[in-house]
Amino acid sequence: MNSGLERLVYESRATGSTGSLVNLATILAESQRNNDRDGLTGALAAHNERYVQVIEGRPASLDNLLRRLQSDPRHCELHIIDREPIRERLFDGWSMASARITPAQGDALDHLKQRGELTAQQTIRILLDALNPPAAN
Ligand SMILES: Cc1cc2nc3c(=O)[nH]c(=O)nc-3n(C[C@H](O)[C@H](O)[C@H](O)COP(=O)(O)O)c2cc1C
Questions:
Q1: Nearest residue CA, atom 7 of ligand 1?
Q2: Domain 5-131 adopts which CATH fold?
Q3: Which parts of the chain have pLDDT scores under 70?
């Protein structure tokens, strides 16, 4: 069945410091407000001065957001890893989750990217793992 939804996965280079919690908190607050309005869901992670983001929703809403993202001076070199129709959302309930990736997960992302092997699937897996870490015992 066609859900009419698409998922966009991209990565970009931060122009400010991704280490600044203030920058990230500001971006997340804007994102959550707008995405609630626009029916978009997803997750955002910052690591080593780069962002990776997954966004799900109606194609027209994704197009509008992509235009805004491409002209946002807070990042550059926006590279779309994948955009494709989906049957259902993976990030349902998250207007924009803050995926706090560990240094090891960040290194894994960097490694895959350097080898030209960073796929949407791997990116999504790392973001989901960061949101649902294994329970500590
Ligand atoms: C890394 C990054 C991720 C962003 N993610 C979103 C997002 O998911 N949704 C959104 O509306 N804006 C997002 N933004 C902000 C947009 O680029 C843009 O500034 C904002 O949508 C404009 O909102 P306004 O029209 O309410 O001022 C993001 C910006 C950056 C740098």
A1: 31
A2: Alpha-Beta Plaits (3.30.70)
A3: 1, 19, 134-137
Sign of CA dihedral 50, 109, 33, 77: positive
pTM greater than 0.70 (yes/no)? yes
Query: Can you give the residue ranges of every domain in the chain?
Result: 5-131
Mutation choice for ligand 1 from 34, 74, 75, 76, CB with most ligand atoms inside 8 A? 34
